[in-house]
Amino acid sequence: MPEPRRLCKTVLLGGALLLLVGLAAYCSLQHRRQPQLEAPGWDVAELQLNLTGPRLDPRLPWQAGPSLGRSFLHGPELVNGQLRIHREGIYRLHIQVTLANCSSVWTTVPPKATLTVGICSPATHSISLLRMNFHQGCTVASQRLTPLAYGDTLCSNLTMHLLPSRNADETFFGVQWVHP
After folding, report:
1. With CB atoms 3.0 to 4.6 Å apart as the test, which of 93, 120, 138, 174 could cross-link to 102 if both were Cys?
2. CATH number of the 44-179 domain
3. What pLDDT was estimated at residue 36?
4. Contact residues for 97 (Cβ-Cβ < 8 A; gap 6+)
5. Which helix (H) or strand (E) holds 14?
6. Where are the domains of the chain?
7. Residue 123 or residue 4, greater confidence
């Protein structure tokens, strides 16, 4: 009688092993068929002003890189000095601009001096996200949460005749992806 028991045990063990291998193969195939989600991590950028000559355009050009100190770019990209988003979701954006050669004690900032941040491209998504008036001061700063789509390009515009400070502690712009 021990022989049929041993045979039964071997058959059951072999069947369980085949079932386990089959299940592993099925799961592996299903995993390969599923579309891969976006890369893990957070898209983030902290940018410095890249003004090297006279301003010919209201848009402020930005730059990032390890050689510049505290500026960096992980995820989004810079296109002609403007920030293009590569991951759809909710972002926290922040900006601070200080005017060059400006003193809060004796300021000649015109009352209409304005800094705006908006989506400038694609044209179908074009919208203003932040609008700040200098109110006779030398610095404006703001932040907000806003949904951004893949391909949105953010532009920051400063009233044309004003000159922003090139000091990275006084003028900077950044975004941080916070939620899908």
Report:
1. 138
2. 2.60.120.40
3. 47
4. 60, 115, 139, 140, 141, 156, 158, 164, 165, 170, 171
5. helix 2-33
6. 1-36, 44-179
7. 123
